[in-house]
Write a sequence for this structure.
């Protein structure tokens, strides 16, 4: 890690925090001068309503996500009934009010620059 008054360089291999899901993966978190950046590894079988809802305590995910898909696939199910698919190379913006699930048998790896501060964080 390198730090100056205005610049921080960190690696996900040494996260500031790791947040395990109820099952099927984890989120590694870097604190970049007060801005949280997450790298989620969502294993096959992962679904927000089964793996994060018990931690979040809300009916659907109430976090805004802004990110990039590195590997794997995920389908986002918005509370209004709309669905969105994310795959490798896709940048995405997801509004609060959704469920999500991994599609297929490959781990989905997402980088998240959104409101990641309290995502999957036990209180």
């Amino acid at each position: 890690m390198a730090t100056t008054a205005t610049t921080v360089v960190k690696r996900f291999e040494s996260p500031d925090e790791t947040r395990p899901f109820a099952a099927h993966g984890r989120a590694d978190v870097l604190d970049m001068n007060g801005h949280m950046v997450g790298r989620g590894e969502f294993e096959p079988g992962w679904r927000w309503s089964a793996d994060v809802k018990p931690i979040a305590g809300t009916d659907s995910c109430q976090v805004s996500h802004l990110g990039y898909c590195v590997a794997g696939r995920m389908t986002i199910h918005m509370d209004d009934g709309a669905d969105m698919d994310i795959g490798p190379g896709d940048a995405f913006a997801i509004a609060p009010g959704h469920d999500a699930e991994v599609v297929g048998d490959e781990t989905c790896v997402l980088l998240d620059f959104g409101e990641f501060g309290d995502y999957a964080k036990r209180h």
